[in-house]
Amino acid sequence: MPEITSRRGLLFGTAAVSAGALLTACTSNEPSKEKSDETRPAADDKPGKHVTIGFAGPQADHGWLNAINENAKDRARTYSDVTMEVTEGSNDTAAQIGQIETLINKKVDVIVVLPADGKALTQVGLKAMRAGIPVVNLDRVFNTPQAYRCWVGGDNYGMGFNAGQYIGEQLKGRKNARVVELAGIDNLELTRQRTQGFDDALKNYPNIRKVARQSADFTVESGQSKMAQLLQAQSHFDALWNHDDDQGVGALRAIDQAGRDEFLMVGGAGSLAAMQQIKQGKGVLRATVLYPPTMAASAIDLARALGQGKGIGGLAETEIPTSITLYSAVVDKHNVDQYMPTGFK
What we know:
Number of strands: 13
Oligomer: single chain
InterPro entries: Peripla_BP_I (IPR028082), SBP_2_dom (IPR025997)
Strand content: 15-25%
CATH topology of the largest domain: Rossmann fold
Number of helices: 10
GO molecular function: carbohydrate binding
Strand order of the largest sheet: 1-12-6-5-4-2-3
Organism: Streptomyces sulfonofaciens
Keywords: Signal
Structural class: alpha/beta
Distance between the termini: 15 Å
Region (Disordered): 27-49
């Protein structure tokens, strides 16, 4: 999952504004021949100057990362005035630097990049900007804002805070409530931010105590093994927050194998499978907190606007902003139908 800056820009919900104003595309792992009205450019957003966008995305070794790539490609297809040069997805820093240098040499109009490592790719971002090619930095942030024209990404602290607040509201009438946390990879800043947000939210509920925390690796296998350890160590608790819906698949397997159902579970990121389970209302999973991969579709919108010298419809500014932070909405049975189209596989 992505690393994130503490920088806070404009706040946009996951259902953000219209095509010229960053309407996000529905997530699909299979390109659809017939796009819904939500995925088409707005009717008044007429084709303009042709823009070639270079896209350097991640290796799709995780459901969320695959959704990033698909959102970008699907969004570009909705524009008759956009051509996208797509590099082979890579989580190797050296390989991705080489791919971006190739895009620079091809003189694309704009580059959209989700860096394998923001710090390590800062210099190639600077190289593109100095070559006169605007960079849209997606999620994992470069070390300096000089390396990008606009950053767009998720809110890890807000994700943790909203998860904690949701759990707090569900348990606020329960005395001596106990919660546990299945975190992501501890050496990532995003994991620390999610945990900090969660802990800060729980401070508002003095009846709740976090009794255990285990870190996993954002994989099904790690989710299952680490959740099994939590279940063995804690004979009873009232709520679980799991940072990632992919590792949550394994966590739910461990929960089923242990025959435990005395607690509610809140997931993270917003996978389609998680939303389907929430809608069914069976089992412990009651909600998931979004980290929307639709940010990649918004990045394409931004890149097109940059290439055409446009601002964002609905805002007074004639230039696009330098930073956009997406909102981490909580999805439960009450609003799951609204967010189901954004769920990733």
